[in-house]
Amino acid sequence: MVMSVKRIIKHLITGNIAVRSAFPAHSLLAIERAIHKAEAGHAGQIRFAVEASLDFGVLFHNQTASERAIDLFSQLRVWDTELNNGVLIYLLLADRDVEIVADRGIHSVVGSSVWEEICIEMESAFHSGKFEAGVIQGIHAISGHLQRNFPRKSNSANELPDEAVIF
């Protein structure tokens, strides 16, 4: 695999200050509230994780944002829901790349092209500097699919934390 020097430089100069700038405390709280409110309308589970950059070791091995999102999907146990309907929204700031990883229950009824379309819409908002709005827009779009396919039942539990995760 060929390492991209440009990508490495972007990752070296993108630090946690970039995360705090894009997602100040009030934005993280608004995202948490949006997840909580959205999950009140369906039985699905949504997590949001943001990472400033990747460590040099994984960059050296050319790990993609998609591969990192899958790692975090597992690490955050998004796959560990009763109905297999967890969805992770992952943002790698250095690459300005959004990835959505959905568990098999929801992914089997909502294909990859739908997730990619939501990612593109979110990335468009991010390019305009609208990070909070972009994430909340993504949460609403994902929730629409979860509401159609996993309607809330009276015994639906909140299986995963709603707060944003910063790596």
Automatic annotation (TrEMBL):
Gene3D superfamilies in UniProt: 3.10.310.50
Span of domain TPM: 30-143
InterPro entries (UniProt xref): TPM_dom
PANTHER family named in the record: BLL7265 PROTEIN, UPF0603 PROTEIN YGCG
Family annotation (Pfam families): TPM_phosphatase (PF04536)
Top-level lineage group: Bacteria
Protein name per its UniProtKB record: TPM_phosphatase domain-containing protein
Species name: Candidatus Nitrotoga fabula
